[in-house]
Write a structure and sequence with these properties.
Strand content: under 5%
Function: Probably involved in membrane protein trafficking.
Subcellular location: Membrane
Structural class: mainly alpha
Family: Belongs to the SCAMP family.
Order of helices and strands: HHHHHHHH
Protein name: Secretory carrier-associated membrane protein
Keywords: Membrane, Phosphoprotein, Protein transport, Transmembrane, Transmembrane helix, Transport
Low-confidence stretches: 200-220
Shape: globular
Oligomer: single chain
Helix content: 55-70%
C-alpha cells in the first residue's frame, strides 16, 4: 500500500507550499466515532471564523473611538490561534480516535481545556484583551451604538464556541473513561515511545488473522455515540 499523501490544508497549486497533514475521516476514523470527530473539526472551523469576525469588530471598535491595541491583538489571536488550535487540540483528537492513543487523548483534554477557558474569557470580553466580548460590547453602547452592535456578533460567537467546547470535552471524556482510559495508560505510552509511532494500517492488516479483513483493523472500544450532545 502506498503511503498516504498529505492533503491538509488544501492549498492552491500556484502556492509553492505543500500540505502538512494527511486527513481522511472515512479511511482513518472508525465509523461509530466519525461524526464526533467531524464535529470537533467543524468546531475548529467555527472558532477560526469567530476570530475573523472578532478582527472586524475590533476594527469597528477602534474606528468608533476604542483602543487600537485591541485591533492589534485581534490580528495576533487570528494568526496564532487558527493554526495552533488545529495542531494542538484537533490533531490530538483526530489521532486519538484513529489509533486509540491514550497519550493523544490526554493531550487533547489538557490543551482543549485551556482553549475552553480562553474562549470563556474571550466571550466575557475584558477591554484590552483583543476580544469583543459581552463586557466590552455592552459598555461601548454609551460611546458608539453602531460599533457596539457589530461587537455583539463576536460576543455571541465566542459564547457559542465556549458552549460547544464544553460539550465536546464532556463527550470525549465520557467515551474515554467509559472505555477504561486513564492517565496511567498515557504515561505508559509516553515511557514506551509508542505515541510517536502508532501502528500503521499496513501493519494492522498484516497482523490480522482471519477469513476476511475488517474495514478498520484496530477500532477503539468506546461506547457508541450516535448523536452529538
Amino acid at each position: 500500500m502506498a503511503a498516504p499523501v498529505n492533503n491538509f490544508p488544501p492549498l492552491p497549486k500556484f502556492i509553492p507550499l505543500k500540505p502538512c497533514f494527511y486527513q481522511n475521516f472515512e479511511d482513518e476514523i472508525p465509523i461509530e466515532h466519525r461524526t464526533l470527530v467531524k464535529r470537533i473539526y467543524q468546531l475548529w472551523i467555527f472558532y477560526c471564523i469567530t476570530l475573523c469576525v472578532n478582527l472586524i469588530a475590533c476594527l469597528a471598535w477602534w474606528i468608533g473611538g476604542g483602543s487600537g491595541v485591541n485591533f492589534g491583538l485581534a490580528i495576533l489571536w487570528l494568526l496564532m490561534f487558527s493554526p495552533c488550535s488545529y495542531i494542538c487540540w484537533f490533531r490530538p483528537a483526530y489521532k486519538a480516535f484513529r489509533s486509540d492513543s491514550s497519550f493523544n487523548f490526554m493531550a487533547f483534554f489538557f490543551i482543549f481545556g485551556a482553549q475552553f477557558i480562553l474562549a470563556v474569557l474571550q466571550a466575557i470580553g475584558f477591554s484590552g484583551w483583543g476580544a469583543c466580548g459581552w463586557v466590552a460590547s455592552v459598555a461601548f453602547f454609551t460611546s458608539n451604538v453602531g460599533a457596539a452592535v457589530i461587537m455583539l456578533f463576536p460576543a455571541v460567537m465566542f459564547t457559542v464556541s465556549a458552549l460547544a467546547m464544553a460539550l465536546a470535552l464532556i463527550r470525549v471524556h465520557r467515551l474515554y473513561r467509559g472505555a477504561g482510559g486513564s492517565l496511567q495508560k498515557a504515561q505508559d505510552e509516553w515511557n514506551s515511545g509508542s505515541w510517536k509511532n502508532p501502528p500503521s494500517r499496513e501493519a494492522q492488516y498484516s497482523n490480522f488473522t482471519g477469513n476476511s479483513l475488517p474495514e478498520y483493523p484496530t477500532v477503539p472500544n468506546y461506547p457508541t455515540s450516535n448523536q452529538w450532545p
